[in-house]
Write a structure and sequence with these properties.
heterodimer, A: alpha+beta, Alpha-Beta Plaits, four-stranded antiparallel β-sheet, 32% strand, B: alpha+beta, 19% strand
């Protein structure tokens, strides 16, 4: 399943870091951050609840980039 | 400017003013340190906080941390040396923030610019309830509902006109301002602007399924498919920063230690200073921001011109296209049969066509349709009697009392009429009136007006080979190819053969060249998928084409193909310029610093300056009108 989330982040490198962090999160099949449109597209692995996974993604992103936000 | 940017600007101004003012205040020692600490903290407090948080989260190599270490280091060095020169550290922080501010401003601005370019999203739909017009959200309009579009408004949802007639402007979709007529029964697609009359439209799709939503979706998601250059840059950034930090550490420790060991004495201050300068130059921001920005601007500019590119990766592939394969019908030719010539006639052209159209009036064959179209007037069936259709030969009928025979050479042989063979390619209809030969009409698929120009423009844009595939007969195919200047032709192909031919061409091409296939998107989805890059044209309203292709041309003008290639070349050119500029300047700066020819000022100017240049250069990709 694929979902798109709106994000807020200030710099392109930070967006890259968020992408890395999201990809490493358990339950995420693949993730792409589009800095230009401020969107994050996440494909969830089977058998994972998107809501729970996204909470974790958000936590991991905050860890690498304090100044970011994902609107769930 | 948003709130955050305004606040940042205020901080930059305050800190700059303080810094300049402090130059004229004669304070010494610790008081001086305390005084200078004020502008430093004003401009840099958030960087210091972020750096602290980064360390806690074990994200050491981020630019905040580097800036914090470099500036604190420089201040500490000034304290240690007793020089009291704190200006440098503060200025570095100041310029860094100016750079960040500019970046955020420029990106925000181009984000808005590009969304304005694509401003085809309708805000409302007019629904008539009890004689009054009511504005509702287009998403709430059900399929089959009737909406009213007034002059000057956008058509919000795809549908069929039920009342009224008007002219529509498709400029927002195709990039060309070609007015289209729309009357009762015509299909209209969303995104067009109604220019003259009021239209009532029965919707045939939901808003989310309508053309305009599909296009917006496609463009917004396009830059998520990353190109190789973008991936290269993210990988590069990941290696670059730690590498520069390691180099800085080596620079701070190794030369002084060597100096100590060799007895020359280690000049720790010099080398620590150079190492700190290294850190200042280590931020990969110029690179990381300018590449996706270039692609985003390129894709935005292309969509403005009616060329939808589904991803940065496709833009990259497009720029390396060396072979363009066309499916003839619908791309180079109109795909409709038209009367293309009338030869050896004994009477006026119009009269001959009139007889032909009347004689064929009972037939629904495409040929007779095109004759009727060429005649252009209402057919009065009462003028035609005794219609005899002779299968495989043609038609004989009585028109206005004259016996008219219209058909191929077999029909003429059968009637014993001597005819003149035609050298033109296409379907030839010989005409005999009252047993005498009256000339022949040539009907063929019409080449698009810009097709020849497009082939030439492709060549000029660096395409090495053009190939035409068609299911048509060899004679027709060769004639069209010769007329247009296409290099290679394969005719009499079944749909499955086309895939095979494309695969053959793919195998035969040089490693780095890319092959593009251009089709009308109707029944060539497999070929579109098989080519390196599939281009569908004339896609207005055709969902299948939008799905199957990588690049979608909104109208069916073949000149859009070379234009798309030129846009991609320009965009990729800018990308490479930026890569070379950013990496080159950084490396040069690092070398100068390591050798002691440059100080922290130069490092920060190089950092911020390159970024500003790269961002401005990236925005250039947006301007494609003149290409």
């Amino acid at each position: 399943m694929k979902k798109t989330y709106k994000i807020e982040v200030d710099c392109a490198n930070c967006a890259n870091k968020m992408e890395q962090a999201a990809r490493k999160t358990e339950g995420v099949q693949s993730a792409t951050v589009n800095f230009m449109t401020l969107k994050m597209m996440v494909e969830f692995a089977e058998g994972h609840d998107p809501q729970a996974v996204m909470e974790q993604v958000r936590k991991n992103c905050k860890k690498v980039e304090d100044d970011c936000e994902i609107f769930l | 400017m948003n709130k955050r940017q305004k606040r940042m600007l205020a901080r930059i101004a305050a800190s700059a003013v303080l810094l300049v003012a402090l130059n004229f205040v004669p304070v010494e020692g610790w008081l001086r340190f305390a005084c200078y600490l004020v502008p430093y903290l004003v401009i840099g407090y958030d960087i210091l906080i972020k750096a602290g948080k980064g360390v806690r989260n074990r994200q050491i190599f981020d630019e905040n941390f580097l800036m914090a270490v470099a500036t604190i280091g420089a201040i500490a060095l000034a304290l240690y040396e007793g020089s009291g020169d704190y200006t440098e550290a503060i200025a570095v922080m100041l310029f860094y923030q100016v750079g960040e501010w500019f970046q955020s401003y420029a990106v925000g601005k181009s984000r808005r610019n590009i969304s304005e370019l694509m401003d085809i999203r309708p805000d409302y739909a007019n629904v008539e309830t009890e004689g009054r017009l009511e504005q509702v959200d287009p998403e709430e309009v059900a399929v089959g509902a009737v909406i009213v579009v007034q002059p000057g408004e956008k058509v919000p949802i795809d549908g069929v006109v039920t009342e009224g007639s008007s002219t529509l402007n498709t400029a927002a979709l195709t990039g060309e301002s070609l007015p289209r007529k729309a009357g009762v029964g015509d299909e209209v697609i969303s995104g067009c602007v109604n220019m003259t009359g009021v239209l009532k439209i029965r919707t045939t799709k939901e808003f989310g399924e309508s053309t305009v939503s599909k296009i917006l979706d496609l463009v917004e998601n396009a830059s998520s498919r990353k190109s190789r250059s973008e991936n290269f840059i993210s990988r590069f950034a990941r290696i670059y920063t730690p590498a520069v930090c390691a180099a800085a550490l080596v620079l701070a420790v190794v030369p002084p230690v060597i100096g100590l060991l060799s007895g020359a004495g280690g000049s720790w201050e010099t080398w620590v200073y150079r190492a700190l300068t290294f850190l200042v130059a280590s931020c990969p921001c110029a690179l990381v921001i300018s590449i996706p920005l270039s692609f985003f601007a390129g894709i935005g500019g292309a969509s403005k011109a009616g060329i939808l590119v589904k991803g940065s990766n496709y833009l990259e592939t497009l720029s390396r296209t060396k072979i363009v394969v066309f499916d003839k019908t619908g791309t180079l030719t109109q795909g409709v049969f038209e009367v293309n010539g009338i030869h050896h006639n004994e009477m006026e052209d119009a009269r001959l066509v009139e007889y032909a159209a009347l004689a064929e009036s009972a037939s629904s064959h495409p040929i007779s349709k095109s004759l009727q179209k060429a005649y252009g007037k209402e057919i009065n069936r009462s003028r035609v009697t005794d219609i005899r259709e002779i299968s495989g030969n043609g038609v004989i009928a009585k028109v206005d009392g004259h016996e008219v025979a219209a058909g191929n050479d077999k029909l003429m042989d059968r009637l014993g009429v001597s005819y003149i063979s035609c050298h033109s390619v296409g379907t030839i209809i010989h005409m005999a009136i009252d047993g005498a030969y009256a000339g022949h009409i040539v009907i063929s698929d019409v080449v698009k007006p810009h097709a020849k120009q497009a082939i030439q423009a492709l060549k000029a844009a660096g395409v090495q080979k053009t190939v035409m595939l068609t299911g048509d007969a060899k004679a027709v195919a060769d004639q069209v190819a010769g007329e247009l200047g296409v290099d290679q032709v394969y005719s009499q192909l079944l749909p499955a053969d086309k895939v095979e031919k494309v695969e053959e061409l793919l195998r035969g091409k040089p490693e780095k060249a890319r092959l593009a296939f251009v089709g009308d998107g109707i029944n060539d989805a497999p070929v579109l998928g098989r080519a390196d890059i599939g281009i569908a044209m004339g896609a207005m309203g055709s969902d299948a084409a939008i799905e199957a292709a990588d690049v979608v041309l909104m109208d069916d003008d073949p000149l859009k193909i070379p234009k798309a290639i030129r846009i991609s070349r320009k965009c990729l050119g800018i990308v490479y310029e930026n890569i070379v500029l950013a990496i080159g300047v950084k490396l040069a700066c690092l070398v100068l610093v390591a050798l002691g020819f440059a100080n922290m000022w130069l490092a920060i100017f190089a950092d911020v300056g390159v970024m500003i240049l790269a961002v401005l250069n990236a925005i250039r990709a947006l301007f494609v009108q003149k290409l």
